[in-house]
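pls design
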């Protein structure tokens, strides 16, 4: 009897954790980053692109020579309307291959891969170079920050808004 109650309690707790997890806004990205680094994620909740440090967070990335999926979880109660990605600070980081992204909220998602990524994001031309053939992102010479991706107009905002109200 004790074992049955314990198993039931564990299953119930795990179910609650999954339900709470589905309430978080997530962004999964598929990238190749060969060196250990960090990604700074900025977001706004008001539809603007007025990004600031107060609405940003860091995600550590372990360098790998192959594709890796990075799970980015937005803070609890954050419902982003626009998102910016600063892809690293490590000056030894070479090119970054950004293969795919997907936004997930309440078990619904939308994704883009390859060239379709740039329908939703644009490079920051002051510090980023995009090789359109290979999809490689690199920092411009003498820039301390890595490549940055900003929202491309309101395409991203529209998709994020749709995701919030999907049933």
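designed seq:
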């Amino acid at each position: 009897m004790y074992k049955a109650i314990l198993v039931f309690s564990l299953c119930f707790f795990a179910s609650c954790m999954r339900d709470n997890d589905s309430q978080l806004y997530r962004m999964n990205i598929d990238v190749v980053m060969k060196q250990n680094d960090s990604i700074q994620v900025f977001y706004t909740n008001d539809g603007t692109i007025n990004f600031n440090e107060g609405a940003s967070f860091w995600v550590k990335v372990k360098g790998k020579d192959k594709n890796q999926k990075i799970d980015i979880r937005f803070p609890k109660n954050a419902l982003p309307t626009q998102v910016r990605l600063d892809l690293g600070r490590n000056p030894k980081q070479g090119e970054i291959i950004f293969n795919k992204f997907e936004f997930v909220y309440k078990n619904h998602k939308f994704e883009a891969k390859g060239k379709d990524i740039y329908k939703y994001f644009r490079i920051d031309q002051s510090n980023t170079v995009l090789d359109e053939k290979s999809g490689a992102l690199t920092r411009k010479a003498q820039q301390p920050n890595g490549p940055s991706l900003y929202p491309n107009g309101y395409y991203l905002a529209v998709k994020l808004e749709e995701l919030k109200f999907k049933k």
